[in-house]
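Human: I wish I could look at a protein chain and see how it folds. This is the protein in question:
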Amino acid sequence: MVTDRLTPHLLSVAPMMDRTDRHFRYFIRQITGQMLLYTEMVTVPAIIHGDRSKLLGFSPAEKPLVLQLGGDDPRALADCARIAADWGYDEVNLNVGCPSDRVQSGHFGACLMAQPQQVAQAVAAMKGAISLPVTVKHRIGIDDRDRYEDMVDFVTTVAAAGCDRFTVHARKAWLQGLDPKQNRTVPPLRHGEVHRLKATFPHLCIETNGGIVSLDQVTEHLDQVDAVMIGRWAYDRPYDLATVDGRFYHNPSPPPSRHRVATALLPYLETWVSQGGRLHQVTRHLLQLFAGQPGTKAWKRYLTEQSCKPHAGPEVVAHALTLVPDP
């Protein structure tokens, strides 16, 4: 077990586009109150010129919460960091890992791994603007710049600017030839190099990410690094996180049942619908709550068919619960 950990956040749920919106985060908070949560990536121009209430709004129940930014201009990133602090976020993270064509065309994401000085300038500007932690999520490498020495050079440069945590997706990214989905699965996992990074930089906070699908795997990684980030597994089988608070944060309270998780969401659904929101905007995140359990097909079918109807409200979820056995 790594001693003298540099972060209280042993586990986090990764920022995922079209996944980790405010509704999913509120849902996950009914399962675990301790894990660090992230927004979807929000670009600098969107924050500067867009609807901040829609882009940045969140419930206090979602905290601790990180705003992930996409951008490369130090001054604009510093402005967005100040906005994040004003909105009450707990941390600001810079995306240096997304390999999509759209992100590359905006000159941010994984392509910035080729420009560690640019990333360092961005981190320094944000650190100078706010007192919150400023962190970076990056890949193990990109294209042919995927030697361990290349990652060490990147981390050395960015660490000198004051980066508070390095979250390393333990796969390289191919900026050409693979789409974002393929970049999450095709390049092989190299967690050993993230472990080695922690050994090389024992004074830095190092978090590993990529392909982790069980709490036993989390435990194994925590013997080597400071923290572990969970991605698609948290979305596909969210209830697997129900024992996280007890197992990793020593919370003595028993984990909530699946039925209790769904029932706790009913007031939230009532408020959301009463404010003009659509039920399916929330329930689309709940489909996997009963994954692997008797009745899960009926649960998913009913929510899918009923939540999109006009005037659908929390009664849809309440009825769907009657279709699933409650142990």
